[in-house]
Design a protein that fits this description.
alpha/beta, Helix Hairpins, two-stranded parallel sheet, 4 helices, 7 strands
Length: 165
């Protein structure tokens, strides 16, 4: 998979609309509210012991981080469904894998951004295509067995059981 494909985030129209609305809210409502709280706390004087000021500044930092995250996500978003062979693992697809070939030890996840989960209730876990598991399964098909190295250094084998659009 090319680097540009790895950066693509597949979003449903509903997920795209929800993320766009969140971004607009943070920029038009969230920023002014936090700025007003910071200004009010500043007027209270001694900032070194002003808990309200420090809390508002921390909230501002978190909000600006979320704004940058959403802007990046939406800049790399493709709305619709992943193209290509429907039996092939690709970003935007729901994948079920069996660990070490054990059909009773399975995990189902969305191969993509966790941001989609807020609007897609069919799965409750997302795996990044850049993660060890995600990178190992991309491009493979149902029945393929692949291995990847976990962060702890252990090699884990999985068999692809199911791929859904």
């Amino acid at each position: 998979m090319s680097e540009s494909q790895a950066d693509v985030v597949w979003l449903t129209q509903e997920a795209h609309d929800a993320l766009t609305a969140e971004l607009a809210h943070l920029k038009t409502v969230g920023r002014p509210e936090v700025s007003a709280r910071i200004a009010a706390a500043r007027e209270e004087g001694d900032l070194s012991e002003n808990g309200g000021y420090h809390a508002a500044r921390e909230e501002q930092g978190q909000m600006e981080g979320r704004i940058r995250q959403l802007e990046h996500l939406l800049r790399n978003a493709q709305v619709g469904e992943a193209s290509g062979d429907p039996d092939e693992v690709a970003p935007g697809r729901v994948v079920t894998v069996a660990f070490d070939g054990d059909e009773d030890d399975t995990e189902t996840f969305l191969l993509g951004s966790r941001e989609i989960l807020a609007t897609d209730s069919s799965v409750d876990q997302a795996v990044s295509p850049q993660s060890p598991l995600g990178a190992a399964v991309v491009g493979h098909r149902v029945g393929d067995e692949v291995s990847y190295e976990a962060p702890n250094g252990k090699t884990i084998s999985v068999t692809i059981v199911k791929v859904e659009a």
